[in-house]
Each structure stands twice: as structure tokens, then as C-alpha cells.
Amino acid sequence: MHKTSAWPLAGAYVVLVVYASLYPFTGWRNQEIPPWDFLFAGWPRYWTGFDVAANVVGYVPLGFLLALSFLRRGNVRFFAAHPNLAAIAVALAAGTLLSLCMEALQNFLPSRVASNVDFGLNAGGTLLGAVLAAGLELAGVLAHWNRFRERWFIPHARGALVLLALWPFALLFPAAVPLGLGQVFERLETSAADWLLDTPFLEWLPVREVELQPLVPAAELLCVALGAFVPCLLGYTILRSIGRRAVFALVTIALGTLVTALSAALSWGPTHAWAWLSLPVRLGLVFGLALSALMLAVPRRGCAAVLLLVLVIHLSVLNQAPASAYFTDTLQAWEQGRFIRFNGLAQWLGWLWPYAVLVYVLLRVSRPEPPPRIPA
């Protein structure tokens, strides 16, 4: 049987909501007021349309995934008469409780303000998402998806599908190199030095004899190509046929290009949406597509082995380059400007996605593949 991907996606989204709600996790203090006091406060004096939309839209996927998880897990026999209403109720209760906890905890953060309006908007977003999931179930859309999944993917595809679903969101956070997810070395080095400052352990850190140098065009081309190649290979490990692999590769690289353009538009403005598409980047996308074409006929286990090698090379080359000054300014715009609420929703995904793929593939290749089932 195909296991639903909605449940792990809902869990991942809860973690991201917690991060975005409590960022930056510093300056905790006790104001000597009940944490639930915000529920009885008056209408906030300052609010914007962006805040309203962010609070509603931010919880719509949560409600959708929670309701879908309830419907897909096959444990709704107790609610057989009205499973869709039960799914909406369970999702709304879980999302509302999560929002209540987040707003209550924001009382202890100086940079965040607990608001009953935010709480109501979050609950409304959860309800909208849950109603959407129930409506799609009633309309038969989810049944069509199940049939599509059975035709295209192998039964044990949930982990890869979850990672592939998260990939476009990881690309939303601006990367120093297009499609270059997982560039964490420089930040880890700086953070470790800050944490160990004024301690004897600071001397334990290795000292770089040579400063990180910007990537030459050939290295940038390679990083872009491998960044496009990785999700294609991941999809190849779960797809059933060569033709479906070809369609998947085209759609994946096109989607990555469009999402990167959206990220650039959000960061620098709509007029600069395609400014990142330099000659090395264009050649890298073509090279990534060519590599994907060469792997179309390779067995799934072989694709997983190649994926491990590609990930190691990609992360090694990418983390030997520093972030540019323009990239640093872009990070500040996301971390201190109007995108602060989405900071945790994409930043950590962009950093950790390739490493999660690495762990998943290692676990995958370490297990023997089940023998194919012969239909009766």
C-alpha cells in the first residue's frame, strides 16, 4: 500500500510554524502577566494587509495537511458517517491549539507581540485549509491523485515524495548560487566562533589558511547543473518507467527555474526576476537536463548510488565558496524586513534539504529492495 505523504508533511510544517512564530528565540523574559491575557485585549492599533494575509495563508497548508492526514490514514471508521466533518474538526482543533500555544509563548519574547487577531486569523486559515481538503475529497480529486500515484510511483515512495514536495519551498529562500541548496559551511564557522567567543574552546576551531574564494564560472555551472540534477535523480528512485522519468525531469527543472525567478523577484523586485540567469547558469541548467537524460534507463538502485555521489560533490564544491556581498544584503532583507515571518519557512529548508536527501538515500540503499509482486 502507498503510505500517505500528508502526515510527515504536516509534521514538518508544524516545526516550521513553530520556528517562524518564535524566531529569533532570544531575549526571553517574564512580564508577570498570564500567557492567555492577549485573548481579552482590544483590537491592535497597528496592523497591515500583509500581516493579515500572512497569518491566514500561513495556516492554510497546515489545516489542509492535517485534514488530509486524518482522511488518508484509514482510521476514520468511528466517524464513517461524516468523515469529512470529523477531519475538519480535528484539523481545526489541532491548528487552533498550535496557534494558541505560539501566541502565548510570544508573550515571553520582546520582539514578538501576542495578538488575539493573529490567533483568530490563524484559526481561520486552518479552517480554510481543512475545508479545502474535505472539498477535494468529496469532489474525487484525492482519489484521482491516489490512482495517479499508483501508476507513476512505487509503493514505498513516501519519503522521496515528501522531500520533493519540500524542494520548491527550499528554493524560495535566496541562495548564493542558483539551485545551490546546502551552503552552510561559512555560517556554521561564524556561528561556532561566536558561540565559543571568550572561552578556551575557541582555539580548538581549525584556522583557515586561505580565505574562501568566489566560484569561477565553471564551478558555478557545475553547482547549478548538480543542483538541478539532484531532485531529478531523487525522483528516478521512485518512478516506474523511463517515459515518466523524462516528463518528471523536464517539469522539475522548469519548476526549479520558475521558483528561483520568484525568489529573485521577492528579494530584489519583479524587474530583477531573471537577473540571476547568467550564461554559466543557463549552461548549468542545460547540463543538468543532459545528465538527467543520460540516467533515464538506469535502475532505481543505481540512481540512488549516483545520487549519493552527486550530493557529496555538489555540497563539497558549493561550500568552498563564500557568500557574496549582494547575497548578504539579501539575507538581511529577508531576516529583518517584511519576510521575517517566512524566514524559518524557507531558510532552514534551503540549508538542510540536501542533507535530508543524503540521509534518506543512505537509509534507502542500506535496505534490500522488496521482491516484485506478481499479480494473481
Automatic annotation (TrEMBL):
It comes from the Bacteria. InterPro entries: VanZ-like (IPR006976). Keywords: Membrane, Transmembrane, Transmembrane helix. The chain crosses the membrane at residues 7-26, 46-71, 83-105, 125-145, 157-177, 215-239, 246-268, 274-298, 305-325, 345-363. Residues 20-134 form the VanZ-like domain. It holds the Pfam family VanZ. This is VanZ family protein. The lineage of its organism: Bacteria, Pseudomonadati, Pseudomonadota, Betaproteobacteria, Burkholderiales.
